[in-house]
Amino acid sequence: MSGFSNIKAQLKSFLIEIGDLSFFTKRCFKELVKRPFEFKELLRQCYNMGNRSLFLVAITGFIIGLVLTLQTRPTLMEFGAVSWMPSMVSISIVREIGPIITALVCAGRIGSGIGAELGSMRVTEQIDAMEVSGTNPFKYLVVTRVLAVTLMLPLLVIIGDVIAIFGSFLVENVKGNVSFMLYFNQVFDALEFGDFIPATIKSFFFGSAIGIVGCFKGYNCEKGTEGVGKAANSAVVFTSLLLFILDFIAVFVTDIFYDL
After folding, report:
1. What is the pLDDT of residues 35-72, one digit of tens each?
2. Alpha-carbon distances, residue 11 vs 14, 144, 190, 240 (angstroms)
3. Where in 80-238 does DSSP place strands (E)?
4. 81: DSSP letter
5. How many CA atoms lie within 13 A of 203 on its CB side?
6. How far apart (Å, rounded) are the C-alpha atoms in residues 256 and 260?
7. What three-state secondary structure class fits 145?
8. CA dihedral in degrees (42, 47, 52, 55; nearest 10)?
9. What is the pTM of this model?
10. Which of 90, 260, 101 is nearest to 169 (CA)?
11. How far apart are CA 110 and CA 215, in angstroms?
């Protein structure tokens, strides 16, 4: 019975947290359209999140391109289909691998950073001080960060995709002596405009999820330094789970529209 009671308590706590996150998201969208608009803080957050994540996204994308090509090439060689490598790699990266891997990297880099930063501000009562001084801390701290991640993630995804495809080209150039023009001609022949639209749209949702969960965990951080660590850790875990759920929904909806 004690085990059942523990499961029941955890389920209740999870559902309560989902409800709190829903109200937090609703408030975020309401504050988004209200004046004043914090453009200066928004630009600062865009620079911090985009610039500081660029190197990590670039390295990750480059390694993905290398590994995907190295692992796939022997199988394609058995069937005499090595010429399909540029098409397969580019479509796989643009449609699925690039957006979800970049989002997971940013969840660890940006989501944990937001959770720790806002958690520290909550613990040191900086957020309370802003409320007392008449400033709207929710709009200044939360809305700007959520919007910044939402805008920056699609750009990071595009950069990661390009670098991943370039990494794949390097493997093909070394292993198969394929020229730059030949490889990228096949890449652009394989890709269609419809491949970019779903990936770009879901990248915006990924960015919103990273920003909202990170801000939610940090803004509602428990008192004490231990609470800051929990906020940063739970922001990454919860965001990663949410990203996979959103990715499944996006793929399912896209598949329906492609079948029409």
Report:
1. 777 788 889 989 988 888 899 999 999 999 999 998 88
2. 5, 32, 46, 19
3. none
4. -
5. 28
6. 7
7. helix
8. 130
9. 0.89
10. 90
11. 10
